[in-house]
Amino acid sequence: MKVIIVGAGAIGAHLANLFSKIRQDIVIIDDDEEKLEHIQANCDLMTLHAPSNPPIQALKDAGIKHAELFIAVTPDENLNVNLCVLAKGMGAQQTVAKVENAEFLDPMIVEAYRAAGITSIIYPENLAALDIINGLKLSWARQYWEIHDGLLSLLGIKITEHCEILNRPFKEILSPESPYHAVAIKRNEMTLIPSGDDMLKSDDFVYFMTTREHVTSLKHLISKENPPEVKNIIIIGGGKTAVRVANMLPQGMKAKIFESDPHRCEQLLDLVDTSRVIVINADGRSVANLTEENVKSAQAFIALTGNAEANILACLTAKQLGVHKTIAMIENMDYMDIAGNMDIGVVINKQALTASHIYQLLLNGDVRNIRNLLTVNAEVAEFTARSGARITHRRVRDLNFPREAELGGLIRDGKGMLVNGDTQIMPGDTVVVFCHGTEISNLEKHFF
């Protein structure tokens, strides 16, 4: 597939790296030669320097009329939108525009731009906020995602030394009929797709898949007893992501936003529901300020400043002060492993979330809801099995399915269920696949 990206910033660079690994025909365009040189040194792709704005000649030189996917991720949202409309008119099949304004998410505006030729409008702050809100729903899980409207659940859990099932083979504690499925384990720097002989160790990070009705019983299995319910939240940094989080808070949750800029505080008062959100003009990194605002009464702490180091240190401080769940926004990909090793809690990265969303457009229409799991360097996606697909020919245990991938669960006739060796996948089933060590695109042939 031919992909053209305009914008060599953090998101553009991450996309270029991701797409070049799966051997797509990539061209990236920018007016900053230094950024392009850095990307070309690390990725197998073509770069084009385009000082003009809009870069019409560069689009022609890149082969826009043959592009299956055009992505505009410059810092200028209006330029991104206009470039997508232009690219569609010049022959691009699908177009994606990154925006910085929540108003672009209005359904009427989305539909109007779709009619103008924009396939997808992406607001990274909204994707990050959705991830954060999911993480607040269960205080005892590091990560929590409801799949297919909640029919299946994927939970990322840190195993402690108090877990009663430590050092016991999975085949002893989880039978094929068990309502839980361990799909991956992160142990130190290594990711394991577990077999029946593998066992949990203290400090492992494990992804479990289960059905909606068994989420609570999984909590007991891994000895996460009596976790606090998230009701009071502290947010440091009053940027766009903080506003989206504040306005998405589930019923029963309240938040305090620390923002050091008094002018931004005035703006926040008009942007959030002040009956549920308190705006505080103070530095949320200060222990004195946090103590004054009774940080110990909060069950969750979210660091959303533009500084990765500040967010990491703030979460470590919050943990020391007794906050149960901490979430840090990390913009710099170089800090992701560091943050994970420091055990700061949930890590959110907008570049990875945006890339996962766009990556889906490269694949068949029957592949949906792709999610990049940075913690274990893996991805999860939903595949719909077509009639006659090879994955429907035999029971799972008899399939020649890649060892680097794990079939976690499926949805059939509106019901979620887990997959085991005796499962026979049927045409029309939506199957959740966990993928490590192989690309999702390599699995399409099994389902179509």
Secondary-structure blueprint:
Blueprint: E1 2-6, H1 10-21, E2 25-30, H2 33-42, E3 46-49, H3 56-62, E4 69-72, H4 77-89, E5 94-98, H5 107-115, E6 120-122, H6 124-137, E7 143-147, E8 152-158, H7 170-173, E9 180-187, E10 190-192, E11 205-211, H8 215-221, E12 232-236, H9 240-248, E13 254-258, H10 262-271, E14 277-280, H11 287-292, E15 300-303, H12 308-320, E16 325-329, H13 336-341, E17 346-348, H14 350-359, E18 367-373, E19 378-384, E20 405-412, E21 415-418, E22 430-435, H15 444-447
Helix pairs in contact: 1-14, 6-9, 6-14
Question: What does it look like?
Answer:
- 30% of the residues lie in helices and 26% in strands.
- The protein is globular.
- The model has no long low-confidence stretch (mean pLDDT 89).
- It is built from 15 helices and 22 strands.
Notable characteristics:
single chain; 448 residues; six-stranded parallel β-sheet; 22 strands; globular
